[in-house]
Specification:
Shape: elongated
CATH superfamily of the largest domain: Resolvase, N-terminal catalytic domain
Low-confidence stretches: none
CATH architecture of the largest domain: 3-Layer(aba) Sandwich
Oligomer: single chain
Mean pLDDT: 86
CATH class of the largest domain: Alpha Beta
Structural class: alpha/beta
Order of helices and strands: EHEHEHHEEHHHH
Radius of gyration: 23 Å
CATH topology of the largest domain: Rossmann fold
């Protein structure tokens, strides 16, 4: 049987392109998830590994969808090889339990980890530069809602509306309300 594995790192990213590529490559069943690739403790990935049997083929679009850490990737690949499972990485080709297949995979895994490390390094350098040169630099994602929108939601809460009612009315999630309302409460206590 041919199984596909599609993964993106964040909830906002889309899986459709990977799923289409996997189907076109012959994947009969596709496991998918939105989970960081820096760990092998991914629920759908673990389920996939437990599903694969001798003679099956695992299809992935790119090596970095599978793993970014060379050591863990090699350990997982060795487990698959021990079960006589082939890996088809669409932008590289089929890797099997031969000396050449193992060599190719080891080299490409090292490059995938190198690429990941370079991304992290560039990101850290960019943040450091911004901290030094941009007085308005703030770490993390920008707020989705303005202070005015949060203040309006806070006033609705003060008038007796529930968090769910406010969410339906404003689109501000319950968790965001609680977090931002705590900030407002802490400011008023000072």
């Amino acid at each position: 049987m041919k199984y596909g594995y599609a993964r993106v790192s964040t909830i906002d990213q889309k899986l459709e392109s990977q799923i289409e590529q996997l189907k076109n490559a012959g994947a009969e069943e596709i496991f998918q998830e939105k989970f960081t690739g820096t760990t092998n403790s991914r629920p759908a990935f673990i389920n996939l590994l437990n599903t694969l049997e001798s003679g099956d083929t695992l299809i992935i679009t790119k090596l970095d969808r599978f793993a970014r850490n060379t050591r863990e990737a090699l350990a997982t690949i060795q487990e698959l090889f021990d079960k006589d499972i082939k890996i088809n990485i669409l932008n590289m080709g089929v890797i099997d339990n031969t000396a050449t297949g193992k060599l190719i995979f080891t080299i490409f895994s090292a490059f995938a980890q190198f690429e990941r490390d370079m991304i992290v390094s560039r990101t850290q350098e960019g943040k450091e530069y911004s901290r030094k040169n941009n007085p308005n630099f703030k770490e993390g994602r920008p707020n989705k809602f303005t202070e005015e929108q949060i203040q309006l939601a806070y006033e609705l809460k003060q008038q007796g509306m529930t968090h769910k009612m406010i969410e339906r009315k404003t689109g501000i999630s319950v968790s965001t309300q609680k977090r931002r309302f705590n900030k407002i409460s802490n400011k008023t206590k000072l």
